[in-house]
Design brief:
By secondary structure, this protein is of the alpha/beta class. The protein is about 30% helix and about 20% strand. It is built from 21 helices and 30 strands. A hairpin with a 5-residue loop joins strand 22 and strand 23. The protein binds zinc ion (ZN) (2 copies) and fe (iii) ion.
Amino acid sequence: MSCTPEPPEAVRRCRLRIRGQVQGVGFRPHVYALARSRGLSGWVTNDTEGVLAEVQGHALPDFLSDLVDRAPPLARIDDIRVEDLRVEPRPVGTVAGEFAILESRRAGAVATEVPPDAAVCPACLEELFDPADRRYRYPFLTCTHCGPRFTITGRLPYDRPQTSMAGFPLCAACAAEYHDPADRRFHAQPIACPECGPHLSMPVDEIAARLAAGEILALKGLGGFHLACDARNGAAVARLRRAKQRDGKPFAVMVAGLASVGAFAEADAGEAALLASIERPVVLLRKSAGAAALADGIAPGLPWLGVLLPYTPLHYLLFHEAAGRPSGTGWLEVPQDLVLVMTSANVSGEPLVIDGADAARRLGGIADATVDHDRPIVVRADDGVVRQVAGRPLAVRRARGAVPTPVRLARPVPPVLALGAHFKSTVCLTRGADAFLSQHIGDLDTAEGLRFFEEAVAHLRRLVGSEPVLVAHDLHPDYASTRYAETLGLPTLAVQHHHAHIAAVAAEHGVAGRLLGLALDGVGMGDDGAAWGGELLEVDGPRFRRLGHLDELALPGGDAAATQPWRMAAAALHRLGRTDQIAPRLAQHGPAAELAELLRRDLRCPPTSSAGRLFDAAAGLLGLCPVASFEAEAAMRLEGLVGVPRVQAGGWSIDADNRLSLLPLLESLIGRGAQEGAELFHGTLVAALVDWVRRAAEATGLRQVALGGGCLVNKVLAEGLIEGLAGCGLAVLTARAVPPNDGGLALGQAWIAGLRAGETGE
Ligand code: ZN
Ligand code: ZN
Ligand code: FE
């Protein structure tokens, strides 16, 4: 992408074709301002492929580099094509020396995108706290560089009439800003002011007073409602926890700014950058001693705290009110006392509430009051969750702020739709080399969850505008997503769960060739119908081969074993020939004698190679978390205890069928202290897995390994594997922008199905 350098005297004319996320992000004003400041003539316009411009004048290479380097914050340039044209004495559409923004061209197929939602930008914050500004303390101020996008847009093109701002005609002052190419709100679709825009159902001072008095409020936000309360108020937090019916699952807290984080949690430079990023995810941070000042019920028994910074004007106004309404933004640079619990407003297992009437009905028993507003949420989006792993972010939940940014595949594939798994559901639709992964949908166990899933599929199809030729789903026949696939009347492809986990990581990195895959996961159905989850695979695009797996443990009593780590401890004791110790050691946690009998007679004890259940077995043997109150709780508690991982000599073996057994390690945990046991478990597991993968690399000649599956959100495990495998000279691929857990599965399914559809010419 370059016009070759020439003497500054030479006048040249170029046509620029810019693709990526370049509409609705202030790209045309950016081109306009740059061209004007350099005395270039020409024009710029939006069309269905992105931005098209013609520029004429001197020093075009400098113009082009500024075009990229100084691009607006929400822009993402995938591609710029530059074509030299004949210099025109009097450029088309303008007079010489002038530059114009032309009407959008809308004919043809849509190839553009809706931008993700973005946190309030610094310029808008200045206005929010400037008593002289006409948008002073206005909870819906936005501009070209910030505010709602994805969550207010039902269909393309992204224009105000297609968003939930359609019902708010601009006042004269806003209209003037909207139409002025020199204004920072030029063509900002969601702009509003107190005259013409949306309003809250409750004044900010009343909201703040109620929170200060210990009330739980349902607050309407960008992608849904939050349940909010004062994080220092133990009674309010305990009441919220009881009402939400979740015993130990941690709540996220919101603090005023980066300066206020340090009182409760440790954030290094990378974590601080994540907290302050325009995506504003919940960042999992290590608690500091000061976290004791927060209510006990926020993240009980865990060393991490989910922290997020304000991202809507309303969030900022709550902290502003508590700070005594200071002018300017300087107060955000000093620690503020207010800390709010901000948790998704839903009833256990159901999707996020987005509608005021729904909030009153479904959250009535939880919230003391509902704070609504009249800008409808068109598309639901939870807060994203991110954790820093090996110095870089890793998505735990990909949602608001990250969607609908596509993943760029290694090459274009026919359009395919992938429906994900059953828990942490997301769906994915491809268009060319772009894979659009939906926001986090959640679990598909409830009627509401399924309805949201179907809405998300329909919305994604409208936004992306491609017609799938193949529908990918999990191999498991009982997943709601699998049953849904069969209703679409399109060819379907069942994709093995762990193949998809590895393919997701390969897809994210644009890797198409053969590679090793290490999937460390809960349970997914294998192609032999068994419960897989600790798999060493050789993956070659749409095909895979199972090279080896973790030695199986029984799942005593079937599914119940997944939420009751003491049962996995019983399974481990049985494998160790210590069946008679099950009842004396584990009777306080449940029907241990009956379980021992099931194990002896091999009744209702299906085998699993799941890595997640191996963590459960270790936790159970160490007496940690015998019964989990939320998914992966045992693994989280185990990880939380690790100071320095240590290796148990002789802790593993690999047999002739390439089964990796950690039974010696499990045996050595019996009777150990929890912390020592957790350190031995992590250190030995990492060493064993590295040994296993290294041997497979030697046997196959493959030098690249992808790590996938839900266990990879474990930082100790992920960092240990990355370091250990790199130390063997292997290239290690890990999930980053797309979660390694089932939230990323649809991407892997889509990549596999796309490759398959490309082969068969479907
Ligand atoms: Zn702004
Ligand atoms: Zn207005
Ligand atoms: Fe999985």
